[in-house]
Each structure stands twice: as structure tokens, then as C-alpha cells.
């Protein structure tokens, strides 16, 4: 669950301090299975179900509160991608984001309620976006999740623990962000009705991978490295020039443009107007948004066969302060 | 996931036959881990995650199609309960319902898409209602689920396998429903904001159980039978006269009024208008709606302290035909 909030209009540095002080306590209590102070249903905190809560700061915080902490240059809306974007105001970037993840929807619902009600005099909700991955126990070991196009999604990712500089900011970041990261949240509508009409050849050409296993068209299994040089009998590239795999491959560009993809599926269900309202909450974490994320995003906007079936309808950028130790407050460098 | 659909206006018996012939094939394939005929993402059917699909027939089917099968007297909207109901047209009863349950949201989303697109020329969607229980692996063994009030919910239920006549219709039912059941689906909004203001004494008085364990106020553990005769030091009943437990207890009325409760939580998340839009999809199955379900519903509407915090906003009744063997079609007695 992603909650997008705006600070109240009269917010200043002390508003931020109070909000993050409360949220730090809440998150620590909820994640350790205790109900926070003001929790009237502490029993519901007992099942943590792997709960994690991640807080982010959007550009508006700097515009609004007059804090003097260093503002990173990238902390602003992404550049427009007019060839693909149809952004809707209701999914706009917000002053703050809270990402709540757990293996059980009940745990998420409770945490969400506690965090919202504790923030209500300091910030107001703009949107909530709910996503899911395959439930624990139903994943296929070693295989990335499937999205609603049936595609294996999120294969190319840094290895956990080995590629820390890809995700975490180092000494060159503003003080308050050192050890933190940046988050891009894009809501990408997927048109299941037109996708349904695409045959498997078109689908696999567009992606550059097979639907069945997620293997690149030049390989056998999902994690085989795509061979972008391979050609077929008549000399055409096996992995098409405008396929998603080729356009998004970091290896083609020296490998700086890597980042951590953590996509979730959203499905608002059918309505009288449409048989589906579904897609991807594309979430990316990276130390350097401009050098890592943006080049890939630009290549995809420029030409990616999958764009025929997908439409970005929401876009937001947040700075994610590092986690805290006992006694610290999340994001505290921001107002000090 | 519950999908409420209406038949197309020109529907007749053959529309029903075609629809249920397709849905029978789809459900059999999906539940056995194969993609149905028209499934363009058959890989997504491979993980069944305990998928079950249940189909129901609403009153409108008889009004619309001119079928001559026996119409059960109870297959109509519930009587109005003006003391509690604030029913919204958008959650009205529909001609058909499809209930899709699985341990993974991805499995549900795929099944939903397949069933909807295969029905699109025969029926149109009116609403979808999404609910959840505690995820597999996060349940507390032996304890019923918690709802968003923190209450242990659904304790008083017939034992699986031992109380079949409570749920399944026998020889006295219309032919096409023999071996089937009836479903009541009530959408009950729960006001988390006012509930939050109730102290634990008021909460437990209203329910008649402790919030911590779900034990009746006269007992130690959830499944202890409430002692409705017990009084406190000054002679007042320990389980209040207007508590939910006492009003809903079947034991008080000879035990005919038992049925299978299978509640799910819904949570549409916060919006700019309200900090929460959440509640219960109250689902009840019973062989005889009028003798089993209605007496309890009437007692609760008449006086149940929990009504102060809850509001029924949707209500629907469906007949659920029995499951089928190879070669049969769901509900086929309906048009024969």
C-alpha cells in the first residue's frame, strides 16, 4: 500500500519533526509486533507478517516548509515523456509517501490506519495505491513475479547485498539522505483488452522474452543474459531493436544505468465502463536517479514496443531517508 | 473477489445455457491449473493457490429470461431493515454473482479476467467487491479471523462436515437447487473513526466477547460457549441483553437459526473525504434463508449495540447451485 500525503498548508520544520517523531515510533512498534501508544487494536499488531514501512519525502516539503536542508537536484517531478505519458492529476506526486508492505492484507490495513490517524492533524491524504505480488507460498522459486500480461517481470535487478551502491546513497548525497535512496513510483495502466488480441509472436517480439518462462529469446531460462548480438537466419536481431528487453538493458550502456525494480500489480477490478482497470505500480530505487533511472526511462519512452499496450497515468519522485537506530527519528537531518 | 453481473437485456434460457457452459469449462480448467480454451496467459493458471469459484443466481434471472424452473420464494431481496440499512444502489443485488477465492491475489485477478471476458457478450458487470482474510501462513491456529475493529469474527459456525444440513439444500428444494445453498452478501461499513473513540469496556459490552482473545465475557477462550444466564455481583447479565453475541446466538432459539458465516474484510483505503472506507463483506450460506438467516438478521436489526458503529450499505441474495461432475454444466437444471 502506498499512501500519498500532503502536509497541512501551515506546515513548517516543526510539523515535519512532530510527524516523523510519531511515525518513527509507530513504525518501530508495528514492525516489532507491538501496538503503538495510541493503537486501540494492539492485538492486530501481533501478527507482523514481515511488515516493512518506508517513508519518503517529495519535492513539496522543500517548497512548503522553508527548511534549509540541502535539496537534491533530482527531487522534482520526472521530465515529461509526452510520447507515452497520460498523467492524471489524481496520481500526482505528493509531499510525502508511506509504503507499507506485508505478507497479509490485514497487517497492511491495520498499519495504514494507525499511521494515517496519527498523522491526521499534520498531513492529509491525497491518494492511496494498492498493489500486490504473488502471495507468500505461491511464488515459483527462482522465478520473478508475473504481471497481468502474463510476463515474468523484474528479472534484471542488482543482487541483494552485492550491489549496495546501486541503491544506497553515499557520501556525495546531502547529509540527511546519506544511506538513503530515491524512489520513483509510476502507475502504468496495462490494457488487457488490446493485449488479449496480440498473438504470442507479437508479444514475445515486444518483450524480447518468452511468456512461458521469461527466458530471453536468445536463452533457455529466465536469468540467461540476453544476447543482443544474436541474429536469425536472415540476419535480423533475435531480440528486436525496439523490444523492451533491449531498450531497458543496462549492459548496453556501460552498466551505470542499473537500479532496483520492485514492481507490484494493481487491479481496481472491472466497472460498468471497462472490463479492467489494472496495471503496474512500477517502483524503482536507485542512488542516483538522473544517471541510473532516467536514461532507461528515456530509452523506453523513445521506443519500446510494449508502449502500444501500456500508459503511464501516475508519476512521483521521493527521497527515502535511511532507516534509524533506537533513539533516532526518521529523516531528522531534514529539519536540524 | 465478488463480481455482480446483470444478464444482457435480451437474455433468455439459451443465454443462461451458453454462459454457464462457458463458465463451467473455465472454472474447471482454472481450478485444475490449466488455462481455459481462450486463455492467452495460460501460465498464470498454473499456480492455483487453492482457487475456488462459486456461481450464484439472483432473482432477476427469473424475471428476465422466462425460464420455467421453480423459483424459490426466498430468492428475492431481503426485507428492508430501516433501523440499520443505508443501502446504496451501487451495491444492489444482481442477476448473477461470481465469488473467486484463492490464497494469492494474482490467481484471483487472472481468474476474474478470464471469467469476465468470456462472459462479455452475455452479461455485464455491475460491481466488484474485493475482500480479504488473514493470509495463509499468518493466521493464528484455532482462532477465527480478526476484522478491522480488532474483533475475532466468525466464531459461531457449524463444524465442517458435521453440519451439512445447515448449509446444503435437500430434497425439499427445487430440483435445480438440490445439493446447493443460498448466499447472502451484505456489505457492512464499519466506522473506524467512531470505533476508535470507544473504550475497551464499551467495546466488549457491545460485542459480548473480549477483544484480546474473542472469548465470551463468561469464558476463557474463543470457543467457550457463552453463558447467557451468568450475572455479575449486582445481578446484571455479564453478556449484555443488547450485545452482539446474545442477539446473534442460535442457542437461544432452539438452534434452527444457524448458518455458515464466512466474512471478509474490505478496505478501499483512505480518500480526501474520509480517513477510511472499510468494513465487512458479510457472507452467509444456509439451506433455508428464511428460517435460518432471517431470524438472526431481524434480532440484530432490532437491537445490537454494534449497530452504533456499523451500517449495511449493500445487500444481495443468490441461489448457489451445487458443484458438477465431469460432463455436467453448472445450474443446468435451471433451463431444462
TrEMBL record, chains A, B:
InterPro entries: Dimeric_a/b-barrel, Dyp_perox_C, Dyp_perox_N, Dyp_peroxidase
Keywords on record: Heme, Iron, Metal-binding, Oxidoreductase, Peroxidase, Signal
Protein family (similarity comment): Belongs to the DyP-type peroxidase family.
KW Lipid metabolism (keyword) present: no
Domain Dyp-type peroxidase C-terminal: 146-324
Listed name of the protein: Peroxidase
Cofactor: heme b
Keyword Heme (UniProt): yes
Domain of life according to the entry: Bacteria
UniProt GO molecular function: peroxidase activity
Name of a matching Pfam family: Dyp_perox_N
PROSITE patterns listed in its UniProt record: DYP_PEROXIDASE
Species, as recorded: Arsenicicoccus piscis
Amino acid at each position: 500500500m502506498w499512501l500519498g500525503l500532503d502536509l497541512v498548508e501551515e506546515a513548517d520544520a516543526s510539523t515535519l519533526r512532530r510527524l516523523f517523531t510519531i511515525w518513527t515510533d509507530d513504525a518501530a512498534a508495528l514492525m516489532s509486533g507491538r501496538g503503538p501508544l495510541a493503537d486501540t487494536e494492539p492485538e492486530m499488531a501481533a501478527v507482523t507478517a514481515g511488515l516493512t514501512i518506508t517513508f519518503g519525502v517529495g519535492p513539496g516539503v522543500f517548497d512548503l516548509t522553508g527548511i534549509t536542508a540541502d535539496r537534491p537536484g533530482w527531487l522534482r517531478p520526472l521530465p515529461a515523456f509526452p510520447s507515452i505519458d497520460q498523467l492524471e492529476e489524481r496520481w500526482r506526486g505528493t509531499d510525502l509517501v508511506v509504503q507499507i508492505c506485508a505478507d497479509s492484507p490485514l497487517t497492511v490495513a491495520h498499519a495504514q490506519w494507525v499511521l494515517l490517524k496519527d498523522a491526521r492533524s499534520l498531513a492529509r491524504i491525497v491518494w492511496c495505491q494498492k498493489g500486490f505480488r504473488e502471495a507468500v507460498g505461491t511464488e515459483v522459486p527462482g522465478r520473478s513475479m508475473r504481471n497481468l500480461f502474463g510476463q515474468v517481470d523484474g528479472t534484471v535487478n542488482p543482487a541483494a547485498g552485492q550491489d549496495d551502491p546501486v541503491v544506497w546513497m553515499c557520501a556525495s548525497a546531502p547529509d540527511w539522505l546519506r544511506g538513503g535512496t530515491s524512489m520513483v513510483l509510476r502507475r502504468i495502466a496495462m490494457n488487457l483488452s488490446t493485449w488479449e488480441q496480440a498473438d504470442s509472436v507479437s508479444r514475445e517480439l515486444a518483450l524480447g522474452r518468452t511468456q512461458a518462462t521469461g527466458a530471453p529469446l536468445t536463452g533457455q531460462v529466465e536469468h540467461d543474459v540476453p544476447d543482443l548480438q544474436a541474429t536469425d537466419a536472415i540476419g535480423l536481431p533475435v531480440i528486436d531493436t525496439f523490444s523492451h528487453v533491449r531498450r531497458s538493458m543496462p549492459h548496453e550502456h556501460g552498466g551505470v544505468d542499473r537500479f532496483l525494480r520492485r514492481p507490484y500489480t494493481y487491479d481496481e477490478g472491472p466497472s460498468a465502463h471497462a472490463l479492467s482497470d489494472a496495471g503496474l505500480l512500477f517502483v524503482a530505487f536507485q542512488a542516483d536517479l538522473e544517471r541510473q533511472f532516467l536514461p532507461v526511462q528515456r530509452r523506453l519512452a523513445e521506443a519500446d514496443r510494449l508502449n502500444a499496450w501500456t500508459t503511464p497515468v501516475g508519476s512521483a519522485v521521493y527521497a527515502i531517508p535511511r532507516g534509524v537506530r533506537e533513539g533516532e527519528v526518521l529523516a531528522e537531518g531534514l529539519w536540524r
